[in-house]
Design a protein that fits this description.
The protein is an all-alpha fold and 129 residues long. The protein has helices at 2-11, 14-36, 49-55, 59-128.
């Protein structure tokens, strides 16, 4: 079983994986950082409209805060999409490598079966001589 894993690891294009790693890490850090940041301003809810008016927050300010939050969410969505795309590309590379290993394993199984049959045939022939 260890031989199969070693072969699988040899088939992975590690140069491409290593080149893409900093971009993936950077996108993941940006995504995590933007998800952990506190909102830029107060987030009004429908029940707090009177309370925000009493605090002196105008509707225009609320709208500006909501626009900023929307832009931040759009940026996070783009970062997530980029990260997902990169992970999908790496997954495709791994799937191709595993598929190649499956084909090689099947060929090896047939070869071992043929060699086993040939060996058995030679043993039977040698004992009959």
């Amino acid at each position: 079983m260890a031989v199969g894993w070693m072969t699988a690891l040899k088939l992975v294009p590690w140069n491409e994986v290593i080149e893409a790693t900093p971009q993936i890490l950077q996108a993941a850090r940006r995504l995590m950082g933007s998800a952990q940041r506190a909102p830029a301003g107060p987030s009004p809810t429908p029940g707090t409209a009177g309370a925000t008016a009493a605090l002196g927050v105008s509707t225009g300010d609320q709208l500006a805060v909501m626009r900023e939050a929307l832009l931040q969410l759009q940026d996070e969505q783009r970062a997530s999409a980029t990260l997902i795309e990169s992970l999908a590309e790496q997954n495709a590379v791994l799937v191709r490598a595993v598929d190649a290993l499956r084909v090689r394993q099947q060929r090896l199984l047939w070869a071992v079966g043929a060699l086993g049959a040939a060996t058995l045939g030679l043993l039977v022939w040698a004992f009959n001589q």
